[in-house]
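I'm stuck. Please check this protein.
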Amino acid sequence: MTSAPHTSSFPRVPESADDVLAGLDPEQRAVATALHGPVCVLAGAGTGKTRALTHRIAYGVRTNRFQPTSVLAVTFTNRAAGEMRGRLRQLGAGGVQARTFHSAALRQLQYFWPKAVGGTLPRLVERKAQLVAEAGAACGIRLDRNQLRDATGEIEWAKVTQTVPGDYVESIAKSQRHAPRDPAELAQVYARYEQLKRDRGVIDFEDVLLLTIGILQDRRDIADHVRAQYQHFVVDEYQDVSPLQQRLLELWLGDRDSLCVVGDASQTIYSFTGATPEHLLNFRLRHPGATVVKLVRDYRSTPQIVHLANGLLSQARGRAADHRLELVSQRDTGPEPQHIEYGDEPSEAEGTARRIRELIAAGVPAGEIAVLFRTNGQSGLYEQALTDAGVPYQLRGAERFFERREVREAKSALRGAARFGGNDAALDLADDLSSQVRAVLSASGWSARPPAGSGASRDRWESLAALAQLAEDFGAARPEASLTDFVAELDERAASQHAPTVQGVTLASLHAAKGLEWDAVFLAGLTEGMLPIAYARTDEQLEEERRLLYVGITRARFRLTLSWALSRTPGGRAHRVPSRFLKDLRGAPATRGASALSLAGGSGGSSATAALRRGPRKPIRCRSCGRSLTDAGEMKLMRCEGCPSDMDEGVYERLHSWRAAEAERLGQPSYCVFTDKTLMAIAELLPEDEPELIRIAGVGMRKFRRYGTDVLAICAGQEGVSGAVGS
């Protein structure tokens, strides 16, 4: 069995071209040495495709087949591009351009616009939602927040598929696409949106590609200039290329064939944005002499997880399924994936949080755990459940690492120490880079011992601990490195968005999880109507939902849990059924959540007993109109968002001030005490005793014991016993 060796964060730069190939398996080596002509790499999940790609580029550079500045590697996210640039630097191939399609096109457009058009490039509108809202209003169409997001998505789809407003209705019918509202209305909004952009002299991200294509098509001299600059192209995640991106790639390439594409049709999950696997599947038809290499050795997941993933795809249908890759795990055996059934969604979230807490207690880092779901709207219950369980978490797409205040301050301190640290006795006593960095961080209040609990203090500690670990890795790889070298490394990583790992359970949608991996993954909410999503009706739409689950399964390295709830609300009718995709995957009957609270398969102890004694919970209904509530925020308020609020503003302000003081005392974020919605519910209901306060969603017995006396005192117009209540 061949395995890919573990690599540190800062491996030594290979001394020779042959050293670049060291450690690659036979198929990865075949990719790395295929430097001529078109190359198509069919790479399954976890098979080391980025490793093979970067080593191919580095091998080409180190053998002088490629000039670094003549290579353009394109991918789909800034994170992936940053990771690729980082790996290429470590392989001695600095200078290679690794960018997203939009970034590469924007760079060319800015450079050539004065020559091709004249003047300066129009301003780029990074968020088009406001313009779409104005376009809708101009057409007499009011769009709420969700409708605005849907309309914006439709406009983006139309543009990347090169569909003009006048053809939108026909294209929707031909593609069998599910439009979020009347296609004729959307066509109106789309047309008005384009007119507004012209009137204001602005462009959007899709225009960047369209305008670059237009210039390269119309100006042969500019196209020749670009082709002289870039002679070798690499495209990652080729199954996600849109028609617009494919056209741009063809113009970059011209009549040459120095192209390497990498993809997996079974991971096509972005068709709603215009992505299509047809370009990958047709590659050998367009390039009959292409070298084709398949990567199927899975270094990420255990045989049990790989078996589940292969089993899921074995039931797939359609052209992408005909080209599926049968993965072969290269890891040792692990635990069987678990299937867990819960009575309702809050119980599912609470049960997941308990299992995560047990994993962390057993030694699994929080940063190596993820909860994945079909839609972002499902995250609220898990945010609350993890908060109640005292488990730190991070939402995928939250603030970038190098933009955090504590990281920016630490970088400034390190930069100052690098310049003027000669008179610092603490640095004089530090005999290596890691000790120097820790000394600087310690002067800012950081210590090697983490603070108790979660919250703001722990978040700050985790960020600085990540910098300390990064310094240790950097120093081990480059013993001669100075503090100045480390600051330069941080600047490079900040520029390429290549952040170190920060501890915290990841909450993300399945789409946002693409390209990531964790030791333990919880796939939640796997019911009919959610996965596959209710609006997936055609065979191809259903197959894409299957591929989405496949992507979720293959994010897990060692431990995988799949769960679903029979009812949305406590006490609601248990009419839901597990996803059809799970039907043929269960090696054993599903476990009931209430009887399997112990990760190791124990009885669940007192927590399980208490859960059973409580019995089924009644549905929460709006106290104004009586409607059954299903949204997590509305359940906290115990009323519909649209129903009138009778909140006592004075009580709310005093609660808010008390919460801020309490959070500061505990060193936690304010939401760990009570969320805003819970404070609003308290200020509306004005509970007078223990039972009334405990019944409010987001309070419960645990928080009542900790904060109940203060909260009831505030509601009664008194000052909290802790004295922390503001006036």
Summary: The chain has a mean pLDDT of 82. The radius of gyration is 28 Å. The first helix runs from residue 17 to 20.
